[in-house]
User: Fold this.
Amino acid sequence: MERALYTEINLFCVLILVILMVTVWRNVVRELDKRFFFGLCFHSLLLFFLDLMWKLCDGSQFAGALTVNKVINAAYFIQTGVLGFVWLRYSYYLENGDADRGIKPVLQAIPVFVLAVLSIASIWTGWIFSVDEMNCYHRGPYLALQVVLACSFLAAVFVRTVFKALQKKNFARRGKLLAIAGLGFVPLAGEVIQIMVPGTVVFCVGVTFGLFVMFVENQNQLISLDALTKLNNRNQLNYFLDEKINHYNANKLLMLFVLDVDQFRNVNAKFGHMQGDLALVMIAEVLREVFG
Assistant:
């Protein structure tokens, strides 16, 4: 009964991820954020598959069962680190439009390398996990280290984005930043619960829920952002003004700057509208760097 319920929950999460991947597939080639999101879903799907294979293999008796169980466990623990790394990179991209901003990717990936070494070594040493003669999985004495390494990425996403969301200068991006924070917190909470209550499948549900929340937030961004420049559009301006009016403060000034691009019509006429679009994107990047 327990194995059947575990399998059903895993398959349900897999189904949701497949739906999300199919939904964003047609835009994967053209849009970098869709490629990141698709990759995150793929790595989550791979983790769920390994988890499902472990549950079906654990305690079963067939030729080479012990070896298969050990390899699946090692691969699963490595994949938890890989997924956390991809999660961190995606959060950097969502925040800044650049996944490489901040700590260099090679340094970010150090926990993954350490986790890979520990996981592979555990096949013989039992550091993180062990499999007895009856082909049953047991936690190793250093499992907590695996949890710390894998969850360090999720914790970093949560702490960094919550801190930024609370800053006044990021008011317009607060909803997006909180969604990114949820992207790290929900799986992190699921992992902690799953460690405290063995046999549960909370981490799988947490990852799926976090991805679903991010997908919904991305859809909301399509409504509030200009498709070309990715700057806030008129809908977001109206929302911002409504918030300021509803929280009116007589001691503070609210000013509106109207900017015009000189001779922009000549850029379109001389170089074509595609180059004109690129010019607008460059101007948008400057505005984003200056005003946040």
Summary: The mean pLDDT is 83. The beta strands are 129-131, 137-139.
